[in-house]
Protein: DUF2797 domain-containing protein
Amino acid sequence: MKCPNCSSKDIGKIGSHQFYCWGCFIELTVNGEKMSVYQVEEDGTLSSLDDLFFGDEMQPEFPHLHASS
Structure:
């Protein structure tokens, strides 16, 4: 798995469907074919970056990222 932001492979699993990129410090959530990207704020809250990463044309690029239940 590569980070959609920085292409780093330094991705850690932090939950059953959650991952963290140590290259650019973003959190990724994968549910089936859908991936969401978040910036971790200073206070620990998450801000969605989906509008920057996933327009209609980008979503099909990640069909290989499936989170198993």
User: Anything to note?
Assistant: The helical segments are 50-53.
